[in-house]
């Protein structure tokens, strides 16, 4: 333990997991000095770039993060890219410990023929696009076709379906990117199919999210009663679990199946036990071939989908695969390609040989994989920061080789990096809100990094 300088920690990534790591460190070790590093000029990770714009209430969690960032011992170093502006080795020279909190930014493939056709997209691209994330703002989605298929039964699929089904008036009241609002205003999408490979009991969505699909002002909900007749395996699974969500979901789906269409204009169709077999079309997606499934016991004890040998074809002009996110390796940091995570034990990063790397920790989706809601990151961060503090208190963390706290910002500036500080972000935040207010909207986001830096002068 170094008595000469306080514990210094860098957190790479400023989504919920990074902020909760900072919060726990400040609480348990009040003398800690923390630098929050983000490659974007804006903080909050998926809260800004992932949470659906029509869920503004969920986004209000940023008030908690604001308080953390405002602490004198915390600095925000935005617009700084790990591995480009700063190497892992350089970073480790300035801190006792580094916490990787970079999330899981990319998508998983379906692995079916035709997936590369125009009109076939990762849901993650669409999510980034409608949220005004600079990496995705130039993506183009052809919303001129009447039918869209969303593959997957998780909450991201639900978000995508909802945004496609919202009326322009509803979207106007959100912080959806201006270009996305305009594109969705022109949308000719009428039928939105959400397709699950397993049955209604195995849906990955949570119940409030599912319920919302039946309460859309501009869209009817269509569920086939026959799809809700359970196989013996699902009935047994329902009876055996303590988790109330599948039971609630089934009740909600039964309620949907009994509803009459009200002619709202658009229809959300929920279809179960179907797997995409191929995407087909001349140069672009025109239809999707869906294989019918039945459920059979898996080695894990769960039920898995197996082909029933029958297929159907659904005409569709746009396909979004929403089958989970996947982590991306950070330059120089160990990575488990298959799972898309940084290998770790209880948050301590492991070398390729399996030994803990002193001073390196991991939190959030890049630690445990892309699962859980925002709050899941609290206990997750607690585990990793407890490991860090235990290592520090036990003398296992070497003091930084460079003790001047200003040395890192100086190095970055010498490399031509325009560091965006917390005060800078607060100016951007105020500008976005003011631009939104002028249009009767909660916020009008800057969606290009140059635009953000330009606004800061
Ligand atoms: P997810 O919850 O893991 O759901 C993935 C879905 O894709 C599952 O239905 C899965 O079916 C299906 N799938 C996987 N591989 C497939 C394949 N090859 N073919 C067809 N279907 C396939 O992932 P997510 O929706 O990306 O969400 C990630 C996390 O963020 C979740 O924990 C979610 O709850 C959270 N989230 C929460 C909110 C919210 O609270 N409002 C909003 C968005 C996201 P199987 O079950 O059969 O594998």
Your description of this structure?
It is a single chain. The chain is an alpha/beta fold and 457 residues long. It has helices at 16-28, 46-49, 56-59, 62-69, 88-94, 123-130, 155-165, 168-172, 178-185, 207-213, 232-240, 245-258, 365-368, 377-393, 407-414, 422-437, 449-456; strands spanning 8-12, 33-38, 74-78, 97-100, 106-107, 120-122, 147-151, 191-195, 219-223, 266-271, 274-280, 287-297, 303-315, 318-321, 325-326, 344-345, 348-350, 356-362. The protein has a seven-stranded mixed β-sheet, with helices on both faces. 44% of the residues are buried. The structure holds NADP nicotinamide-adenine-dinucleotide phosphate (NAP). NADP nicotinamide-adenine-dinucleotide phosphate is lined by residues 110, 151-157, 159, 196-198, 202, 204, 206, 209, 275, 322-325, 370-373.
What key phrases describe this protein's structure?
alpha/beta; binds NADP nicotinamide-adenine-dinucleotide phosphate; 21% strand; globular; 17 helices; 457 residues
